[in-house]
Design brief:
This protein has helices at 18-36, 83-92, 136-151, 164-171, 178-189, 193-201, 207-214, 223-232, 238-251, 298-301, 315-325, 345-357, 370-380; strands at 40-41, 47-49, 67-69, 75-78, 101-110, 122-131, 157-163, 219-220, 260-263, 276-282, 290-294, 308-314, 336-340, 362-364, 384-388. The protein is of the alpha/beta class. The strands form three sheets. It has a nine-stranded mixed β-sheet with strand order 1-5-6-12-11-10-7-9-8, with helices on both faces.
């Protein structure tokens, strides 16, 4: 027998029975939110040209992509992200559409995680993209949709909100190259105070250095803005802070309370974010299950400049959590199993249809004998066997 004949590749898994039903349930709840808010479904190819993801601002490393070559020698990749293919689609097939365009998707993405450490190489995502519009109204629509989506599948959640331009504006005031800026960003993202201080201590002291040093600790509610305006006074980050404060105040009527958190240490890995950035967490899941933001410059790479914002939800993670602690039953087990004696098969199948229409989960036994049917029912835990004929 071949070595890998009966196993799945690292970072992937089969979803069986209740897992698959729970996934359908979770995705259905989220999809209902997307559709109700006017987003239209699109599906992009699972295989794309490497060029789509090789742009400098993608934030996707070459090492993390599954690559292959087509019969013409062109480099392809298994889709590692959904936003970039949708940007490609909008710039080509939807270039003459009335703006704004509201799109949503449900599809797997593939990332090669060499170290794995519990991470998946294949994960199902659902998300939305709002393209062709900028400003407060668009950002509030994306954020409120994100809140509705995550609240449709979890009660105990939080949304962390920041602005990409706070860090970008401060870092532009420093005499550093892109590599050094990335090291600082990674230290802030990981809240690695020691590494961050070591990097900043090598720079000439100034207002921007002091402000960047404080970013990872600027986490909380309204009080964050008081401190942030104080430490960023006189820098180019104030404009972004003003806008973020306006967004925060506008979201108060949603009644999120302490579920809405300002995090100025939220500096996303994807370089294409240009405005608000946000992540969503569900209690009991360590990693973020939702992430998104504004990326106004991305479509320019595809020769279709326009405002754009969106987010994605890791539905695999939500499903696994739902299965672990939900009162909802995802069992595919029928309430009754129908056995038909020889010559009564169609009558048995008709009875199954009648029971299903009346709201009873019923299944037709394809086993040859009543004894085998009863034995099967015992193993599955099916409460009742009905006999026809």
């Amino acid at each position: 027998m071949k070595k890998y004949l009966r196993i799945t590749p690292e970072g992937t898994k089969d979803f069986l029975f209740a897992e698959a039903s729970a996934m359908d349930y979770i995705c259905g709840k989220i999809e209902k939110v997307f559709v109700s808010r006017g987003f239209q479904k699109v599906i992009t190819p699972g295989i794309e040209f490497y060029d789509v993801f090789s742009i400098p601002c993608s934030g996707i490393s070459q090492e993390s992509m599954f690559k292959m070559v087509d019969n013409k020698g062109r480099l392809l990749v298994a889709r590692p992200d959904s936003t970039l293919p949708i940007a490609r689609m909008v710039s080509s097939r939807l270039k003459n559409s009335a703006l704004p365009v509201r799109l949503y998707y449900k599809q797997a993405v593939y990332r090669n995680n060499p170290t794995l450490t519990g991470r998946r190489n294949e994960l199902m995502q659902m998300g939305v993209e709002l393209l062709g519009v900028k400003g407060l109204r668009a950002d509030l629509e994306i954020l409120s949709t994100a809140v509705k989506a995550i609240s449709s599948v979890a009660n105990d959640f939080r949304i962390e909100l920041g602005h990409a331009e706070v860090f970008d504006a401060l870092s532009k005031e420093l005499d550093i190259d892109d590599d050094y800026k990335e090291k600082i960003r990674v230290s802030i993202e990981g809240k690695n105070y020691s590494a961050l201080n070591n990097l900043l201590d090598r720079l000439e002291p100034c207002k921007a250095v002091s402000a960047i040093r404080s970013l990872p600790s600027l986490f909380g509610g309204e009080e964050v803005f008081t401190k942030a305006f104080e430490i960023c006074e006189g820098t180019n980050a104030v404009e972004a802070l003003d806008y973020l404060h306006k967004i925060y105040d506008s979201l108060i009527p949603l009644g999120l309370g302490d579920k809405l958190i300002i995090d100025l240490g939220l500096v996303q890995r994807n370089d294409y974010y240009t405005g608000i950035v946000f992540t969503g967490y569900i209690n009991g899941i360590g990693d973020a299950v939702l992430s998104g933001g504004r990326y106004d410059d991305l479509l320019s790479v595809f020769d279709a400049p326009m405002g754009a914002a969106g987010f994605a939800i890791d539905t695999d993670a939500v499903t696994i959590k739902q299965l672990a602690d939900s009162d909802v039953s995802y069992s595919d087990k029928p309430d009754v199993l129908i056995f038909a004696h020889d010559g009564y098969e169609i009558e048995g199948i008709n009875l199954v249809s009648q029971l299903i229409e009346s709201g009873t989960k019923a299944e037709f036994s394809t086993l040859p004998t009543l004894e085998a049917t009863k034995e099967f029912a015992d193993k599955r835990g099916i409460a009742e066997v009905k006999v026809v004929g």
